[in-house]
Amino acid sequence: MTNIRDIAAEAGVSVATASRALTGKGRVSAATVERVRAIAQRHRFQPNEIARSLSSGRSHSLGLLVPDITNPFFPELMAGAESAAKARGQTILLTAALGADSAREDLSVLRARGVDGFIVVGNPFDSAEQLREAAGSRPLVVVDRSESVTDLSTVVTDHVEGAALAVRHLIELGHTRIAHISGPPGLDVTDLRVAGYERELRAAGLEPRVVDGDFTVESGAAAVRALLDGPAAPSAITTANDLAAIGAMNAVLARGGSVPGDLSIVGYDDIVLAALVHPGLTTVAQDIGELGARAVEELERQLTGDTDVRTVSLSTSLVERGTTGRAS
Ligand code: RIB
Questions:
Q1: For residues 291 and 299, what is the distance between their CA atoms, to the nearest angstrom?
Q2: How far apart are the first and last CA of the chain?
Q3: 131-177 residue pLDDT tens
Q4: A single GO molecular function, which one (predicted)?
């Protein structure tokens, strides 16, 4: 059975250096870290997790709470968090919780599992105090959605500017009748994207038109059918996320229409699927993996003693593909 001494001897370093290289703690050159970890991997060496936890007082696991794992955005966010966690010798324990009751239960289970801290998408409770209470004394970072979150560190993207990017793109293509299919009511991301859409349209002297959606494929299809069957049908739409945009695309094609010929569509997120549909979805890209990675970094910052409350805001960018074209 390979132990840390065997790893150190083969790597030509002290046991202390090998331990630092494997735990990511303390100063070790990148070359030494790479050499030690390669030897450990080759020997399938698993440092005694219990011993490590007892010595460090940490479980080296983080809890990640997301609202919905059926939306590709959240698994992609988890992938970014997991990559950053693994680089630090940590693991991510994922749970999907919709609503306060299931969130309270899941946070309690994760606390019992001894996670070192929590990353939560938005606040499933009515107040930051309730979230703080459910998380206990463990460090906490809120990612992506930050409504009703005060005095907690957050990692978000600029949703207002992201929505404005989509509108500017369509205006540059000559569209003047641009509608927006919104996200679910009550979320800050929904309101912020509507605000960015309306701000940009009004700045161009155009009339906003918002139709309710709920981030699902079905809501995008239903909304676009209502828009195209109604008066003054739009020549372009922006949607609050990619799934709604894909639903809208399907609805146009199902009625014999074409995208972007009959309707230009801009989504929001840039999930992997956005590049796989045909035509490829023009969308506002959030760096989803980076959101997860930065949330892990923020948690690590708190775990190593820096508990200042901080907001990290990531930018968005427009990814032009095939669902937008010049207004006819
Ligand atoms: O697609 C899911 C949406 O909910 C994303 O836009 C993300 O911002 C999350 O809040």
A1: 12
A2: 71
A3: 999 999 889 999 999 876 778 999 999 999 999 999 999 999 999 99
A4: DNA-binding transcription factor activity
The ligand 1 site (C-beta within 6 Å) comprises: 71, 73, 144-145, 189, 215, 241, 268-269
Best of 73, 77, 180, 218 for a ligand 1 pocket test (most atoms within 8 Å of beta carbon):
73
- In the reported structure, the alpha carbon of residue 269 is separated from the centroid of ligand 1 by a whole-number distance in angstroms of 7
Three-state SS across 159-226?
HHHHHHHHHHHHHHCCCCCEEEECCCCCCHHHHHHHHHHHHHHHHCCCCCCEECCCCCHHHHHHHHHH
Which positions ≥6 away from 4 have C-beta within 8 Å?
A: 15, 18, 19, 22, 45, 47
Does residue 153 contact residue 117 with C-beta atoms inside 8 Å? no
Worst-scoring range by mean pLDDT, 14-18, 46-50, 177-181, 220-224?
46-50
pTM: 0.83
Atom of ligand 1 nearest to the CA of 271: 1
Ligand 1, pocket-test mutation among 241, 284, 291, 315, most atoms within 8 A of CB: 241
CA gap 93, 115 in Å, rounded: 8
Residue 239 burial (CB < 10 Å; 0-12/13-18/19+)?
buried
Which residues are paired to 169 by β-bridges?
none
Of 60, 51, 288, the C-alpha closest to 156 is: 288
Distance 73 CA to ligand 1 centre (A): 6
Q: Which of 71, 121, 216, 238 to mutate to test the pocket of ligand 1 (most atoms within 8 A of CB)?
A: 71
Question: Which residue matches tokens 């030494």?
Answer: 32
Longest dimension (CA), the chain: 77
